[in-house]
Amino acid sequence: RADIAAMFLPEFSRENERDGGGERQPEALHCRAVSAAAGALKPTSFSPIAAGHGAIGWTYAAQQPLCMNDPQQDERFDAQVDAPAGFSLQNLMAAPLIMRGRTVGVLMAANKRGGRFGDVDQELFTSLASAVSRALENASLFQSVRTRQQELQESHNRLQAVMNGILNPIYTCL
Questions:
Q1: What is the pLDDT confidence band of residue 162, given thresholds at 50, 70 and 90?
Q2: Interior CA angle at 91 toward 63 and 10, to 5°?
Q3: Calpha distance 133→79 (Å, rounded)
Q4: For 34, left (φ over 0), alpha (ψ -120 to 50), or beta?
Q5: CA distances from 38 to 19, 41, 87, 88, 112 (A)
Q6: Which residues contact 13 (CB under 8 A, 6 or more apart)?
Q7: C-alpha 168: how far from its chain's center?
Q8: Rounded distance between C-alpha atoms, residue 71 and residue 82, angstroms
Q9: What's this model's pTM, rounded to 2 decimal places?
Q10: Are the CB atoms for 45 and 84 separated by under 8 Å?
Q11: pLDDT tens digits, residue range 81-93?
Q12: Strand residues in the chain grouped as ranges (E)
């Protein structure tokens, strides 16, 4: 168990969304969900994080899990963005959420109760991130199917209206 768990998702600028070429880079990663033992944390307790900045941004950019048992001694750690305002982190784990080869977010856990994060903790946390990634991908696929289904229904309705318009004069002439 950890005192803090959070999920960070990217936010893209409008210009970046319209730029059809290449890999889109997020404007920033924002905390979208947080759970804390103290219960006083909100997603807004975390500052927006640039991709590649701090441990969370590094995890996003590198698409690699990260385990820090002494984060202050790691150059990738930045207390101003990796820790919520007013909190000190003794240890931290982060794992990327990857869909179809693209990073779509980061899971983070900090301040393990009763000591340091170990290899088993990191394996379990990475497995959790993989399961969350699959769930996000399934939700995305489901939404795509629903959207396509709605488009097909609208096309069917238009075609039916055209057919009714063509057949109606033929029946009224007879």
A1: confident
A2: 35
A3: 26
A4: beta
A5: 42, 7, 11, 13, 14
A6: 27
A7: 52
A8: 10
A9: 0.77
A10: yes
A11: 999 888 889 999 9
A12: 2-11, 28-36, 66-68, 92-99, 102-112
